[in-house]
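Posting this for the archive.
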Amino acid sequence: MVDHLPVGTEAQRPLPRHATLALLVGRITTIKLAYWTALTAFELALPLGGAAAPERFGSSVVFAAFATGAALLWARRSARAIDPRAGGLSRSIPTIATTFAAATVVASPASLPLLLIERERSIEGCVGLVTCHPEALWLWVATLVIGFIVIPAVFAASLRSSS
């Protein structure tokens, strides 16, 4: 790609184009939606019942770790990939800010179904609506932090240098 900035001047870089912003938002949103969808589908597939709670929690943690690893690898690869129409994404303050803003605003509702499932799991076999399995809620908190902070941070850190 040819740079259209004059040689030897301190000209301001052009603002990001719409296609570049759409590429950025689309990539990070897709990764986060897939992450929370996979976690939610896995939790829905697990059997109900208080007796299987320890085994179920162990398998939930293992699957969450696997899904997190896959999402982080995907974020790293996606941040560096070149799109034939929009080009590549480069690291800059606006790009990093957009990564976190898009990840927070656009993909945040995807974590809510998982919260509802984990809340239900946290009160299974309990008297009343009191939580007696807080590990289910801690799993949701951990995946929330991963989805809101870790995945976008890996994506942002993996962007190509703008220089």
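The chain has a mean pLDDT of 81. The longest strand covers residues 90-91.
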